[in-house]
Amino acid sequence: MENSEKRIYQDTIDNLSDGVIVIGYDNKISTCNDSACAMLGIGFGTAIGKSIAELMLEIEENNEFFELLLNAVYEKRKISKTVVFHTKDSTKYIKVTTTLLIEDGVDNALIAVLSDQTETTNLIIRNQSLATQIKALMNSFVEVMVTAVEEKSSYNANHTRNMVRYARRYLEWLSSHGELLDKTSGNTGPLIMSIWLHDIGKLLIPPEIMDKPSRLGRSIVTVKHKIEIARLMLRNRTLSGEDTEEHVRSELKRLDEAEELIVSSDTLPFLDEERIAKLNEIAGINLLTSDGSTCPLLDPSELNEITVARGTLTDEERSIMQSHVVLTGKLLSKMEFVGEYKKVPEWASAHHELLDGSGYPDGLNTEDLPWETRLLTVVDIFDALTADDRPYKPPMPPEEAFRIIMDLADKGKLDKEIVDSFYQSNAWNRSPEEALAKELTMKALKSNLENALAFIDDYLNEFDCPEKTRMLIDLASEEIFVNIATYAYIPRSGTVTIKISLTEDHSQVNITFSDSGIPYDPLAREDPDITLSGEKRQIGGLGIFLVKKYMDDVRYRFADGKNNLTLVKNLDNP
Fold first, then answer.
1. 289 phi and psi angles, rounded to 5 deg
2. Nearest partner of 518 among 130, 33, 115, judged by Cα
3. Cis bond leading into 361, ω under 30°?
4. What's the CA gap between 472 and 499, in Å, rounded?
5. Where along the chain do its domains lie?
6. Hey, which of 39, 319, 372, 501 would disulfide with 437, CB 3.0 to 4.6 Å?
7. 3-state secondary structure of 440
């Protein structure tokens, strides 16, 4: 290259806004323009003649940047990558692009072009952080709603959690078989959220209807009270001579038989026509009241309730109960779901619709119901049939429940492909570990630490956990709970769910802490150097270091907008 050309070349490099570094294959820097020096925070011209290794020693904490340049030089290859670069005053994001300097057909050196991407990268990070915060807010709202339903009806909260567990397993099974993307989005978060929210309309349903344990419900007390008053009045008539003992004895026997019929009918799963006829017959028995007047054994409202053929709800009560899907839609319509979450209200509020148009509330049919809603409906029916915590019916064995569900599919009410696939996946089968699992959700407050540890200790004591092991589990659990209560939701507040379970052979306990706060993986942090004094050691990280030391394994996973940290402890390894 002629001298004049070299001057033009050098002037062009010096005036570029991007940084330019030319590195020979002897690892020496022959060119470093002013922009590059400014980015790296070094004096102008001070890098010339130095090796990358020397510069690496002078500018500490930037190993990734310099190793990138070294690898490009040694391997004589082109790269393009953005890395973090630390100076005394700031942290930057520098995009490094390398190419080969070829002269007379021979590559003599490597040119590295440095572009300051800090502003753009920070904008992307802020946008990602905002999106994460919005998702966290949505998940916190979901937790608030589910917690509210749980407070109102504990069995319904179990129903929702069961459905989420079944659906997650089924979706994972579809994914493992390469079938998920044929059905729905690879991001299953919106579908799972629709399951969490599908029953929030029940918040507005009267508890005496939603949790009605029998046909008469609270009215059984009134009916029994009327019968008891009538008995007392009949006995008084004998004492006063107003009636004969024989007649009173006959009337008392009739009351006993009527009461037995009412009480037994109150909780039966199904009433046949003969029993309903008998109930109608005894309803008109006149009972003596305390003021000497009479009243019917069963008034029209009580008769209407006790003669319900199947279940516990009258037609009017069932209509109120079914309105929860309309209420779910109304509640969710007050929130703006965007992007992939836009369909959440639609999926959640249509879970009682059936493919043949016989469902409610809108009588939708096959053309109107997307795959996500069809799945939600199948899972909802399965758990409703097999639930073991309903106050008004015993649980149904899974195989019997599937016979009913498959029959509904054969009749065109449910998606047969989903029913068959769900059955084949075995996602519905509770493992022995799950049968032993317990779960508690509470506000993430330090004042709840004692309740959290009591929940864990009560569970461990059921299985004769060694005292030393229990103490180590308590220490680790306290560290995790306090961290969540202190940092997860700043400046908001939220909840934490603790799930504890044992393996089938009772040899290992697993405790998972879940929160919808700021995404954070405590295991990603480097362990502190405990050989250093407290003054020299970097602040933070000691608590999770001790947790890892106390436990046999610690795992972190961020899924569905939740931080999930699991502690694993072998009970025979204190």
1. -105, 170
2. 130
3. yes
4. 17
5. 3-116, 153-208+321-430, 219-304, 434-570
6. 501
7. strand
Q: What is the pLDDT of residue 485?
A: 92
Give per-residue burial for 556-569: e unless 16+ CB within 10 Å, then b.
eeeebbbbbbbbeb
User: How many CA atoms within 13 Å lie on the side-chain side of 472?
Assistant: 22
pLDDT in tens, 490-505: 777 789 999 998 887 7
Neighbours of 201 (CB within 10 A): 22
Residue for token pair 């996973």: 557
To the nearest 10°, report the CA torsion of 13, 14, 18, 19: 90
Report the distance separating Cα 376 and Cα 345, nearest Å.
Answer: 13
Q: What phi, psi does 131 have (nearest 5°)? A: -60, -40
Please state, in angstroms and as integers, the Cα–Cα distance from residue 66 to each residue in 37, 98, 300, following that order. Answer: 14, 13, 87
Whether the pLDDT of residue 473 is over 90: the answer is yes
Residue 5 pLDDT more than 60?
Answer: no
Average pLDDT estimate for 538-564 = 83
Spatial distance between the Cα atoms of 193 and 372, rounded to a whole number of angstroms? 11
> Pick from 544, 402, 421: which is nearest to 487 by CA?
544
Q: How does residue 154 score in pLDDT terms, banded at 50, 70 and 90?
A: low
Question: Yes or no: is domain 3-116 CATH 3.40.50.300?
Answer: no
Q: Are 510 and 562 in contact (CB under 8 A)?
A: no
Q: Are the C-beta atoms of 258 and 228 separated by less than 8 Å?
A: no
* 121 contact partners, CB below 8 Å, separation of at least 6: 82, 93
**Which H helix or E strand runs over 217?**
none
Output the pLDDT for position 537.
47
Q: Which has the closest alpha carbon to 500: 574, 569, 426?
A: 569
Return the number of other C-beta atoms located less than 10 Å from residue 327's C-beta. 17
* 3-116 shares its CATH topology with 153-208+321-430: no
How much is the average pLDDT of 282-310?
Answer: 94
* Dist. CA 455–CA 440, nearest whole Å: 8
Q: Is the pTM of this model over 0.70?
A: no
Torsion-angle region of 541 (φ positive above 0: left; ψ -120 to 50: alpha; else: beta) = left
Contact assessment for residue 502 and residue 508, using Cβ atoms and an 8 Å cutoff: yes
**Residue-wise pLDDT tens digits, 366-404:** 999 999 999 999 999 999 999 876 666 778 899 999 999
Superfamily of domain 153-208+321-430: Hypothetical protein af1432 (1.10.3210.10)
d(CA 558, CA 515): 10
Q: How far, in Å, are 33, 56, 83 from residue 117 at the CA level? A: 18, 21, 9
**DSSP tag of 487:** I
Q: Across 58-123, where does the E strand assignment appear?
A: 80-86, 91-103, 106-116
Q: Which residues contact 139 (CB under 8 A, 6 or more apart)?
A: 193, 516, 560, 561, 562
CA nearest 20: which of 136, 132, 99?
A: 99
Structure tokens at 212: 């009605």
Residue 376 · residue 339 · CB < 8 Å: no
Distance of alpha carbon 298 from alpha carbon 469, whole angstroms = 60
Looking at domain 434-570, its CATH superfamily turns out to be: Histidine kinase-like ATPase, C-terminal domain (3.30.565.10)
Question: What is the C-alpha to C-alpha distance for residues 514 and 564, in angstroms, rounded to an integer?
Answer: 5
Q: Look over the chain and give the mean of its residue pLDDT values, rounded to a whole number.
A: 88
